[in-house]
Amino acid sequence: MPRKARQKSSTGIYHIMLRGLNKQDIFHEDEDRIKYIETLKKYKDISDYKIYAYCLMDNHIHLLIKEVKESISQSMKRIGVGYVHWYNKKYERCGHLFQDRYKSEVVEDDKYLMVVLRYIHQNPLKLPDVKSFNEYQWSSYKDFIYQNSKLTDIDFILNILDDDHNEAVERFKRFMNEKNDDDCLSYYTKKNTLTDEDAKELIKQCADLDNPEILKEMDKKDRDYIIKKLRNNNISIRQLSRITGLGRGVIEKANKVKKIKKGKRGRKKKKK
User: Fold this and answer.
1) What's the pLDDT tens digit per position in 123-149?
2) Which of the listed residues 31, 116, 142, 167 has the most CB atoms within 10 Å of its CB?
């Protein structure tokens, strides 16, 4: 079936959401997040788009972006290709990293612009270990507070809030902290018994790996043994696929492998 055409924004402003293939992580460490931000900066100079907000989560990304010189599709293609090329080289992999096309919604007025801005910045607060905006490093929230970013175009937003710059920043803080029922383009996930962070630590302990994605490169027997062990520790198939990059079919097959009974693997039966 042909893909549904994207809605065109009359303002040129879009809320973009990208997620990892099979919901796997697209950022494993700070270096990865730094590289994505550098990629946004690099192509901002080339494509001349404006970034009003961003938030980098482990397995998905939110951007509030305005197209200027070229279409948003072309800009997102540049960003995606640039980051994936670097990521694949670093982790010695090939193929796609992001799930399908990016999702987008148009932002047609100042009111919804502010709603999306708040929604994006409040995303990290859904994490169990993040209690305040200042605790999360990988969003544009601090750019508005400290005003030292070369990526985020803060003036456009602050001018909407107030003509006085200092008052605008204070209003920004108050608005970001307001409780709400904002319903924007979102990334829905089912709750797991383990958080992704706990699951990653468990994988590292069971497999003795610094990066869970290395599980893909292991010997099949060793890999399947570890997968079965992890599944017995309440890591779901979807969560395991998301974190390691392994296909769900591979995990399902590994989980069905029967345990070898004692006495049948290199042991001789004792004579009576």
Assistant:
1) 999 888 898 998 999 999 999 999 888
2) 116
